[in-house]
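Researcher: Good morning. I'm working through a list of sequences from a screen, and I'd like to move beyond sequence-only analysis. For each chain I'm collecting a predicted structure so we can compare shapes side by side. This is the next one on the list. No need for commentary yet; just the structure.
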Amino acid sequence: MLDNLVFGDKIKLFLKNELKQEKEAGTYLLYGDRGTDLLGVATAFAMAMNCPKLKNDYCGVCEVCKKIEHGNYVDLEIIGLLQGESKVGIDKIKNVIYKASSSSYEGRKKVFIIKDIESMNKYSSNALLKIIEEPPKGTFFIFISNTLNILSTILSRSIVIKVEKPSIKDLEVTEEIYNFFMGNTKEILEWKKEKFDLDQVKSYNSLIESLKLYLEEKELKYKIDLLKGIDDYIYNIKKIKKSEKISMILDLLYVLQNEKLVENRSHERKIIEKLMYIFIIKLKNPKSTEKLLELKQNLKKNINIQGSLTLFFLNF
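Model: Good morning. Structure tokens for this chain:
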């Protein structure tokens, strides 16, 4: 089944070589561009470590593989930021240390997948460092991140591998579909399975409602409606009046602040930052990109959110 991964030969060969060594413990860092399904690779790695049917590979159909795939295998722990969180806190890492030091329930490998590793504070990083320096026998840590901006001591104790984003050919889709999803591997694979309609146009006037539904339900069909709304906005950009843009900004802020979709200001900024990122990528205008990226970066500073949005969309 490793051969069936849509990722390139480099990551497949890496995983196979690591499995063949039959290590008793290990720490890995998988990193790649935004939209690369790093969690999917980490999950496949965990299945290959634990599948009782195949050695150094996974069948994908046995009870162990199915449990790992669905995230309910007792010896698999997936840790990351929850809604509204900005840091992976010390309590989560203490829980990891406790479980890593305990015996395996299934008698196989214990795997801890830690997402958002770059978001750990120094207390969490230092606590984690102690356990990965000498991981208990049968224990594996897989960190995943879109950046290498990680504590150097953690980097130095990890086997680091870049996961390249699958190509259009790898994913067996058209360039139009690949660009619609901005190369997001996980979303493309889910779309291939579910076959949601991409042809039906969605007006930019429904953009905020689609965002609201997506934040509430976290389902791909609502993300597709959101992307369609953004595409329609860009297509009609020259016709959209300044007053419409201001109205959309106010509607966006109202939905985020009054529909209980965000936990705090930090979470609100992250949602808006991701929305800006989608607009920039889909605009495909190199002349505007630098200015828009600069305006997006302003959200990381203590600048008024409404002011940042207004500057962004009036320059869009």
